[in-house]
Automatic annotation (TrEMBL):
The lineage of its organism: Bacteria, Bacillati, Bacillota, Bacilli, Bacillales. GO terms for molecular function: ATP binding; ATP hydrolysis activity; branched-chain amino acid transmembrane transporter activity. The keyword ATP-binding applies. It comes from Paenibacillus glucanolyticus. SMART domains: AAA. Gene3D superfamilies: P-loop containing nucleotide triphosphate hydrolases. Residues 2-231 form the ABC transporter domain. The keyword Kinase does not apply. Belongs to the ABC transporter superfamily. GO terms for biological process: L-amino acid transport. This is ABC transporter ATP-binding protein. It comes from the Bacteria. Keywords: Amino-acid transport, ATP-binding, Nucleotide-binding, Transport.
Amino acid sequence: MLKLQGIESGYGESAVLRGVSMVVDPAKVVCLIGRNGVGKTTLMRTLTGQLKIRQGRMSLGEQEVTGWDSVKRARGGIGYVPQGREIFPQLTVKENLLLGLEPCVPRSKVFPEDVLALFPVLPQMYHRQGGDLSGGQQQQLAFARALASRPKVLLLDEPTEGIQPSIVEEIQDVIRGIKAKGETSVILVEQSIEFVRSVADYIYVMDKGTVVAEGVQDAIDMEQFEHYLTV
Ligand SMILES: Nc1ncnc2c1ncn2[C@@H]1O[C@H](COP(=O)(O)OP(=O)(O)OP(=O)(O)O)[C@@H](O)[C@H]1O
């Protein structure tokens, strides 16, 4: 279980997160929604350790990880697919995948077959350059790379951004597949209410750097949540 208590962080003088508290249970899909600029990506970067926690506490299972840097957090079980995916365009699909093994403890050089099985399209493309893949294929590559080290929590920042609607369903299936394996919780930042509706177990709504609403998803809740997304 990932637990955040009163997290504050930001950039230089500017405070962005103002006391975020959240719980993510094992093997659940938790969606984070809110208007542009409310701090969702900042929260992702704070969870990975790219940004320091200035106040508050973060724990993963029984382990307090508040002071851990990004390398330690990755080894400890935080996987990340950033907005824009950050595939290395000049490296092959296989090389991109193997980079995902970096955080493995103990070290491994073999990509796990059961993780690859979630992405049947990838083995056919091993020798193509990452930059030659479509947006949807790159997204699958980024997911697979982040899952290589079997993270306890996978952070996905707007995975459907710039993806054709026909491919969005494939991404939903992958998220369901991750959940079904039961090893990894997912925290998903997402703008599309439809997408959230299709995968979320639990929803947190952010506004102005803090959580303003939360709950299990059902039709009535979603109407309330949509209010926070309309400008
Ligand atoms: N590198 C940075 N340096 C300084 N301020 C930043 C930086 N990145 C983001 N911010 C500011 O932090 C605030 C929160 O931004 P953040 O990207 O976390 O929001 P968001 O909810 O993810 O929005 P979006 O949906 O547009 O990605 C904004 O006011 C933004 O201008």
